[in-house]
User: Fold these one by one.
Assistant:
Number 1:
Amino acid sequence: MCGIVGYVGTENAVDIIISSLKKLEYRGYDSAGITVLNQKLETYKTVGKIADLEKIIPANFTGHIGIGHTRWATHGKPETRNAHPHLSSNIAVVHNGIIENYMKLKEKLISQGYEFLSDTDTEVIAHLLHSTIKNNTQFSLLDAVRHVMNEMEGSYAIAVLYTAEPDHIVLARKDSPLVIGLGNNGFFAASDVTAFLRYTKNAVYVNDKELVLISPTGVEFYNNDGQQIEKKVDIIEWDEEAAEKAGYEHFMLKEIHEQSASIQDTYAGKISELEGRVILDELKMSDDQLKNLQRITIIACGTSWNAGCVGKYLFESLAGIHTDIETASEFRYGDPVLCGQVFTLAITQSGETADTLAAIRSSKAYGCKAAAITNVVGSSITRETDSVLFTRAGPEIGVAATKTFTAQLIILYLMAIHMGTVRGRLTPENARDILVGIKQLPGQVQKVLNNKNIIKECAEHYAKVQDYFFIGRHVNYPVSLEGALKLKEISYIHAEGYAAGELKHGPLALISSETPVVAIATKGHTYEKVLSNIKEVKARGAEVIAIANQSDTEINKYVDMVLRIPDCHELLSPVLSSVVLQLLAYYTAYARGCSIDKPRNLAKSVTVE
Ligand code: AGP
């Protein structure tokens, strides 16, 4: 995830910016850069680590005002020309977030004669500021930033330097974090407090649509109407390690809590709710190609495979396309029956899973068109496939996949709706229904998170059991698989995920009062069937924890505990149920004293067979 920093004061800005950027390294990044303002803007940037940036900075590079950035690629590959800061003549900008309407703005700026040196959305901000000041000569930098904020759609935390106003940095935010540090020898700005905690513990959190001006003598805060406002100073009690996790005890818990934002970032710019359609140019498939598509073969491992399994239901029910879901390690040594009409889709958060890469290579040998869903721009899978759909979940540090899973689901919804609309299976009204539902997910995820205490109580109650069962039907069947995978991965409890209707064909023999069963019983066309399966396991003595919708008043009669999710479209419930299951796994592992972020025997990226 990108990180921005800024400093103005009496100390050497280069040293402070470099040390602050190092503190943001934990967020994950692929390139870095710095600009210092000494009458003119002097910029250094590179692909790689902060240590690589230090190597190219000359010893005499100093100053008292500057901005810096660590980039996690979203628009454009990890290349030096895409690294921040981005410049437009006498303006330098660093940015964290996504400008959704950047293509439209870019076209306008190109028609005005602006030349773009990068593939990023951020360069648009630099040129937009330059053009605003050029066309409104009375504007200060603060005025220009305020003006440009009204033109930009999406999320941003930005820090701007302007040679004509050499003693201050202007900052602004919308839907992307920004915090100001108040030091004795200067003022700091950063994406999170970790960056400047060694210099000051006095911080002011910037709210959406607020602007900030930091100079050697003080800080001024403004609202979007240009009025100066007062802000509260917080004293940060965290040490640096706690701050990296934003105060959460584990990266996994932090990442679970980031899902409201990561879901929004993933669908940003891809939904036209008004027209009831999805904008998915990255898929690089014409309407004719989509209409003629006969089969989709999804290839993935682990959690990504579980997401793919939800995808199978979506492609079949929303787009009417026969879909297979293949385990990459099996597919690569099987004898798949494929031909040019089959579209293969690799799902891999890391983009580096050896089995998935090998399987997609072998599918290409059959002449299939291949696409990938991944979270990492520039990863190996992006070079192996014809098109790439990026989840924008930001780096995931906990070994257990959480926010990348829900982001994968979002891309799968968008793909299925897009294909269904083009193929005439979905009317714009039907599509709009689901798209409206997708846009409600961030708020609904937040509601689930707000109720985490009951999930914690449930986890603690059953923390000592040796076996768990998870059951669900239709799209909730893969959710049950994911719930079981998450639990065994981090708590080391044996857990099985089952299609609820399959229990009676064998596993029912294992059900007893010792095996709690988590039943995903959200409203939908299989709800009644799941109720019957709940009765089946209750009759064998099992205690049942149901995941059910908020408005379901019936469920309490049949189960021992209910974990609620907000009411939603039946196909969208996997996103919300998964958040519940992630928290259940997390709190169970916590109660058992397990190593949550680095479970035994597992690695984040499985680059070997
Ligand atoms: C998920 O919690 C696991 N860490 C694991 O199953 C993972 O999903 C699998 O190894 C696939 O990884 P990928 O998405 O990076 O390809």
Number 2:
Amino acid sequence: MAGLEPTPFIWFDGKLVPWDEAKIHVLTHGLHYGTGYFEGIRAYKCANGQSAVFRLRDHITRMLNSAKILALPCPYTVDELCKATLDTLVANKMESAYIRPLSFVGYGGLGVYPGDNPINTIIAVWSWGAYLGKEALDLGVRVKTSSFSRIHPNTLMGKAKACGNYVNSVLAKVEAVQDGYDEALMLDTNGFVSEATGENVFIVRGKTIKTTPLTSILEGINRGSVITLAKDLGYEVVETQFTRDELYCADEVFFSGTAAEVTPVREVDRRTIGKGRAGDVTKHLQQEFFKIVQGTNPKYQDWLTPYTF
Ligand code: PPE
């Protein structure tokens, strides 16, 4: 896990404030009850020397959908948050960055009912390298099926990138890391493969790629990018439920996510996946994914929002 390297400014309710001054009160509602929603977005330095945010509008649209699911208002429009994100990158002179917009129920009353507490919004940017470790992108990660089920849509709703949802992810992640693994694989409450603590899951058999249906997962932006890309490259992609024993026997398993990008999985529950390293299809998709985010594949130019400073 990368430490946080401060950058000069954080966007806080419409103003760029110095990193150290972006503070909130300890009685903030969101801190007590997890009442907030956020995004994780990446900006990349492109081959032409410019920088660009990957699928900015799609991420911000999902953020407003999270607000809707949680029945918490978002004080800003998609356009306003897209502009604020670009302003924050420019103010911090970030060539590449991980971007974290977050809205939360602020300071006012306490008690479960959010009442008329304000909704505060921040956008922070910082440098975040390979999420699951430097070697993960090449060699793949070791994964353990969690003893915790992924949240059921009638308990918490996984389509919202809600702060409180991440307690489920933290439980699973801490268990996996304490047991010596890199990441946890979570099953849904019916026992089907759901997602990892911060990534969607794909399996490959021959030329067929399977990923879990939307039922119990966050609708990953990168999941969507990988599906589109894989289909364009001629692979068959099926969104269907599968079980962990099917996953054990896959030729390849990989994760997609903003932070994790396209990360191969080399071992699950002490069973080696395929050849025990990044498989050919995973490597192919990973290489093409990096070409897209670096702006060298004109077909997907629409996914990039360039900025200069
Ligand atoms: N599932 C979960 C539970 C999840 O948190 C993420 C993103 C995904 C799937 C993939 O979604 P997308 O990034 O849109 O392709 N996890 C974010 C947070 C990671 C963190 O540790 O914080 C991320 O990758 O930014």
